Amino acid sequence: MTATRYPYYPGCSLQHRTHAYQQSTEAVARALGFELVEMDDWNCCGATEYFSVNRLPAYALVARNLARAAEQGATELVVPCSACFLNLHKTDKNMGRYPELGERVNQALAAGKLHYEPGTVKVRHLLEMVITDIGNDRLKERTRRPLYGLKLAPYYGCLVARPDSVFDSTEQPTAMDKMLEAIGAQAAPFALKTFCCGGHMTQISEDTAFGMIHQIVQNAAKSGADAIVTICPMCQLNLDVYQDAANRYFETDYHVPVLYFTQVLGLALGLSPKELGFGQEFVDARAVLDKIQDVPPPRATPARRPKSALPMPTMPE
Amino acid sequence: MSEPRVGVYVCHCGHNIAGTVDVEHVAEWAMGLPNVVVSRDNKFMCASTGQEQIEQDIKEFDLTHVVVASCSPHMHEKTFRNACARAGLNPYLFEMANIREHASWVHPHDRDGATNKAKALVSAAVHRVIHHEPLEPMKVSIRPETLVVGGGIAGIQAALEIADAGYHVYLVEREPSIGGHMAMFDKTFPTLDCSACILTPKMFDVGAHPNITLLSYSEVERVDGYVGNFTVQVRKKARKVDQDLCTGCGSCWDKCPIRIVDTVFEAGLGYRKAIYRPFPQAVPKYPVIDVENCTYYKTGKCRMCEKVCPTNAIRFDMEDEIVELEVGNIIVATGFKLFDARRIPQYGYGRLENVFTSLEFERLTNAAGPTEGKIVLRDGETTPKTVAIIHCVGSRDRNYNTHCSAICCMSSLKFAHLVMEKTGAQVYNFYIDMRPIHKGYEEFYHRIMDEGAQFIRGKVSEITDVARSPEEDGKLVVVCEDTLIGHQRRVPVDMVILAAGLEPRADAQEVGYMFGVGCGDTGFFIERHPKLDPVATATEGVFIAGACQGAKDIPDSVAQGAAAAARVLGTISQREVSLEPIRASIDEERCSGCRICNNMCPYNAIDFIEEKGVSRVNPALCKGCGTCVAACPSQVISGAHFTFDQLMAEIDGILVDVLSDRPIVEAV
């Protein structure tokens, strides 16, 4: 573990809407012995829309946070929300990659007597920070209540699975899968792990949004998952709050609770469901808690293949 | 000694140099350099008129040294050295200044800068050349035996050409049998003739040829020596089967209880036993025991093969054998490796059952393969009704390999034909560009289109089993942008074939290092010249052929195998070869015998003479790299043609201020 105090950017969603994520993040931090120190005077990251509306002000809006963080002496910034993470990370990278953009953004910042040198602040997603700095071995060691018997669908969403991805693969990341296995759960083979949840499509075209949400929930259910584990407030909102509406729209009856990775991690660390914000979700997650067993389930025997079947290629570890 | 008399020749190279560098001015300016008695510019120095000018001037002006400012010495150093030699001047009293690659081509928009740089380079060459000494090349005899490394089609062709010409060939193959990738194929494009039918006669010829010693299941471990006289160490891995007794009857592998997935010959789609012969037409016909998987080597029990062998040919205690070969030339034909499709997770290979690689499909459709040629899904039973073939998997893609793998368009067309012919399935080809470029290939493309294959232009973004509609249920869905109609498409199919690209062998770097062959930026071996010397390498006497040099199909591999053989036969018929006299020598009077140079030498060319307590360079082994020269703490090793005087003079020359004509560093 490299630090015990991390400069922290909570973002608007976390602070004003998704208390379960904020609560569980802080609880997990306490349990793992690191402190998230909220940076001073931060502002909204512009969410998913502003960059499409007007690029330069969008970059400037985000860069203001980076400039303020740098001014406060931060060399890294931990961000739990995927949208905030993407915007901050992208702004830092692109200001360095396209010097002309960097210059124009800094011209805008100068109006507020601010300046940002790209590369100064390393923007980190909370999940990446936990996996890299604490590590699965340590998480396993700290696990008080292994999540035996739980099959969880690791849902990365589309925002962290981009070409600048900080996870192991852009297309089929496995970082969270491995973390879930480390704390005793089983990672479901979830094909749509990087599929888009629809973002704010619910406000624009419900038909489209329901289609996207329904597909993810259905795929998770078919993979045998007891719950979807997410790392983004937007994803959680869409899959959880609109699950019922999507069910009605498609005349289905899925009940797949959607939890934050910090909530399931916190359970494993022995924290109580209450302090992890359980009960705030729309799709009741109590059934998930009841499924946790005291002993690891027997290893599932692979499905029998017909005698004539051809061998499958082996996959590297 | 009389004053040196230098002639300087500045080449226009058409517009290549003169388009940027003011060559007339450079030639005029060079007249003012010390010892220059004649300086000219010329449209093409390499043309016979240019060369004759040098010869004429040497006689007329009594030149003692010559400088040509033109292209890279790689191109024409030999040309101008020969011109000097024809006029009676020792060819090493010549120096070349590269004002094309080093000036005009790299500074195309800076005429003054390029001209000044050319002047500095000419000055360096003039200052250097007067310190040159006449050198005599060393003649060495060429051994007529040749080593061919790799028993694929390129290596087989090369070996047969040389053997048929009457010279001995050692053919070393890593696997238990020769045949390479071609032996795995069912049909070859564009003629659709049977791969085995055209390959196995050649394999048999190799096995039976009196002039070929086949070392299968063997690997080269060490190469010493130089052109004409290489010493090669080969490890013959223990087959655990006595070849003198074995008849290849097959009782042993029939009865062997251990069955494992064959990831080499069957591309992972079929099985073999722990004692196995890769395929029925294998040459040699003898099996090998796979020690890693054999029960006897794990537990000391079983010995089933031994019990059933009618000729008592099983030898569990057989050890690897090291063989030393003396050869004059080496042909490296080590082939390629298929791109690992698991590196593109969105294509699902290894995750989605019915995604196959091209090599898997070759085995699937092969009458001697695991399904006896039936094209079926991974369950081994179901015949596909729709098949997608994805082109350029791992090729022409900045994320994996930038190069075009050259064979995939055509093999994909072949696959399309075979699928349609054998199953009647609808075939969709997903391509970026179709490149059927050789003779008969375009016609084949049209034939396959006429046969009803569909072609969708667009790079596939993913292959998924997540259905969005009832038609997609239980299918693999190929998602791509059809760039011809400008729409996203989702095409549900039963089977996907990934036309995976060709990559250098995983150990190409180490193998290249062993033979003195470099790897280019795509990892394939580098030829001496991409157009005019495609099978020679930077190391004299070492040639390359086939897909180890770059992705290529069977006709091209055969052509290169034959070309490499022709080059080898050329040197054999010369009987001897001249070695560059550029090598190191040690002043034994002043050598302290510290032996630092002994281990530094990458060519093992320095011996320690015990009785005298000094080191000595073996001139035939020395490549003139200069490592020892730099390493010697007593500074008593000198590299011929790269002496201290020559290098210092060259530096003095390049530090002339080309504007004031005075040295930049007066103090030196």
Briefly, what is this?
Helix content of chain A is 46%, strand content 9%.
What's the structural blueprint in terms of helices and strands?
The complex is a heterodimer of chains A (317) and B (668).
Chain A: E1 5-8, H1 12-16, H2 19-32, E2 35-38, H3 50-53, H4 55-71, E3 76-79, H5 82-97, H6 99-110, E4 122-125, H7 126-142, E5 151-155, H8 175-182, E6 186-187, H9 201-204, H10 206-222, E7 227-230, H11 233-241, H12 243-250, E8 258-260, H13 261-268, H14 286-291
Parallel strand pairs in A: 1-2, 3-4, 5-6, 5-7, 7-8
Chain B: E1 6-11, H1 15-18, H2 23-30, E2 36-42, H3 48-60, E3 65-70, H4 73-86, E4 94-98, H5 100-104, H6 111-129, E5 138-141, E6 146-149, H7 153-164, E7 169-172, E8 187-188, E9 193-194, H8 195-208, E10 212-215, E11 218-226, E12 229-236, H9 251-255, E13 259-262, E14 270-273, E15 275-276, E16 288-289, H10 295-299, H11 304-308, E17 321-327, E18 329-332, E19 336-338, E20 355-357, H12 358-364, E21 386-393, H13 408-423, E22 426-431, H14 441-450, E23 454-457, E24 460-464, E25 476-482, E26 487-493, E27 495-500, E28 502-504, H15 508-515, E29 542-544, H16 554-574, E30 576-579, E31 584-586, H17 596-600, E32 606-609, E33 614-617, H18 627-631, E34 637-639, H19 644-654
Parallel strand pairs in B: 1-2, 1-3, 3-4, 6-7, 6-18, 7-10, 18-29, 20-27, 21-22, 21-27, 22-23
Antiparallel strand pairs in B: 5-30, 8-9, 11-12, 12-17, 13-14, 15-16, 19-28, 24-25, 25-26, 31-34, 32-33
